[in-house]
Specification:
Elements (H helix, E strand, L loop, with lengths): L2 H17 L5 E6 L3 E5 L4 E11 L16 E3 L1 H7 L5 E5 L2 H4 L12 E10 L13 E3 L3 E5 H7 L8 E4 L5 E8 L2 H9 L6 E7 L2 E6 L5 E6 L4 E6 L2 H4 L3 E8 L10 E6 L2 E6 L5 E7 L2 E3 L9 H38 L3 E2 L5 E3 L9 E3 L58 H14 L5 H18 L4
């Protein structure tokens, strides 16, 4: 805050604070009369001026002689009345002793001007070693109340709170200004009235020659004030407190809020709409609109989320299905061994190598029935008797067989071509040779033999 704005703020505070001291009243009290002033129960007397002498002709002075001499006795009347709910005293020789401007044989009177100031009067039952919370945007704390009730002392300090974003201004009406002047003339220290605690900061309240002045501006929205006893501070005073500034705003739904001193900006989260506000006293000046529901954005976000979930689920299903197919292929693989070969033909529907070498040995339960020996045909001398494994039969246990454990083939009794032709016919037909096949095989063999040996 710059110097010009601070000066404007202090002037504004003075105008608002002293405007509460309203309905000033002026009274004349003749010599030997009783000065009796009383305010309401929640108010205290604040003397604004007090003159003793021959100010003007009136009820106390009838003759029009030596008019105009006067003496300022405000500091004395302050000690009797200011800060109290009521004062009663006799206008006596004590005032005459302060006469330095009028002739002593002249008849004089006391003229006062005062106001009744509304102050905070706490419940005495709550002043029991705990802080006293002050409610309201502004108020006044008289030191005389602390002397009477104990409220506001170190054991039960005043707790002044404002709303978040606001600060607290303290002003003081010091009724000990004349005593301060005398102590300064005697080179004595200033009077200590109490302390202000603002967070971790502790500031002393001291007397000053200036009767009405600005005392303190808080750093936060909550401060504590404790007042020293009368025998230590030596004078009475009234502390005026007031909330300054605008409280923090609560932005509407789907909106953001930014504050810089007395300026604030509110904008929508889902659009470019903004509103500018300025603090005027304790309230914000400006208009704030509403931010619409972000339906389109929500729909877009939900749509993207749904698409991502679907893609992830599809990829997962495909991966799982591929894995299961691979497992099923490995379990349902059908092996077929060609006669005389140490490898197997796989199912043509399986996209794998067409030939796979797997030396194996069937268990006893899986052994096929022995092949029937063809009449007139010898076994292939180079291959063991062939047999087929049906495609729907699953080989669950594959055990390797060592080559030296395989039995030796039989010696051929007839030409090798007949055995080869018979075996090929058996493989082409896809079934075990029977009676019909034997005849075909024998005839084909004879024909081949005849073709191969024309002499026979």
């Amino acid at each position: 805050m710059d110097k010009s704005s601070a000066s404007s703020l202090i002037c504004y505070i003075y105008l608002t604070v002293w405007s509460k001291v309203a309905n000033s009243e002026s009274l004349d009290f003749c010599l030997t009369e009783d000065l009796d002033i009383k305010c309401s129960a929640d108010e205290v007397i604040v003397m604004e001026s007090a003159m003793f002498g021959r100010m003007e002709q009136g009820r106390c002075i009838r003759e029009n002689e030596f008019i105009g001499c006067r003496n300022d006795v405000l500091f004395m009347v302050d000690g009797w009345c200011s800060g109290r709910n009521r004062c009663n005293m006799k206008v006596s020789e004590e005032l005459e002793a302060e006469n330095t401007n009028c002739r002593s044989f002249l008849r004089m009177y006391l003229k006062v001007k005062y106001s009744c100031l509304k102050v905070t009067i706490p419940d005495i039952d709550h002043c029991n070693n705990e802080a006293i919370s002050l409610i309201g945007q502004e108020g006044a704390i008289p030191s005389h109340v602390t002397d009477q009730t104990g409220c506001g002392s170190k054991r039960s300090p005043w707790l002044i709170s404002a709303m978040s974003g606001q600060i607290i201004e303290l002003n003081i009406i010091d009724f000990g200004s004349e005593i301060i002047k005398q102590r300064q003339n005697d080179n004595n220290d200033l009077l200590l009235y109490g302390y202000i605690i603002d967070g971790d900061t502790k500031t002393s309240i001291s007397g000053d020659e200036t009767r009405k002045r600005h005392l303190y501006t808080s750093l936060s929205n909550q401060i504590t004030v404790d007042i020293l006893p009368r025998d230590i501070r030596k004078a009475d005073f009234i502390i005026m407190y007031k909330e300054i500034g605008c409280p923090d705003l609560s932005p509407p739904v789907h909106a953001w809020y930014k504050r810089d001193g007395n300026q604030a900006v509110i904008g929508c989260e889902w659009s470019q709409k903004t509103w500018h506000l300025s603090c005027d006293g304790r309230s914000w000046s400006g208009v704030v609109g509403n931010c619409s529901e972000p339906v389109l954005w929500l729909v877009c976000l939900v749509s993207v989320a749904v698409v991502l979930i679907v893609v992830v689920c599809v990829i997962g299903v495909v991966c799982i299905k591929k894995y299961r197919i691979k497992q099923d292929v490995q379990k349902t693989m059908t092996l077929q061994r060609l006669p005389g070969q140490g490898h197997y033909d796989l199912d043509p529907n399986i996209e794998m190598a067409s030939m796979l070498y797997l030396p194996y040995k069937l268990s006893e339960e899986e052994q096929p029935p022995p092949p029937q020996q063809q009449q007139g045909t010898m076994s292939d001398p180079h291959r063991p008797t062939s047999y087929l494994i049906p495609q729907d039969q699953v080989v669950n246990e594959l055990t390797p067989i060592r080559i030296w454990e395989r039995p030796l083939p039989d010696l051929p009794d007839k030409p090798l071509a007949s055995s080869i032709v018979a075996s090929c016919n058996t493989v082409r037909s896809g079934r075990t040779p029977g009676d019909g096949d034997e005849a075909v095989g024998i005839s084909d063999a004879k024909e081949n033999n005849n073709n191969g040996n024309p002499d026979e």
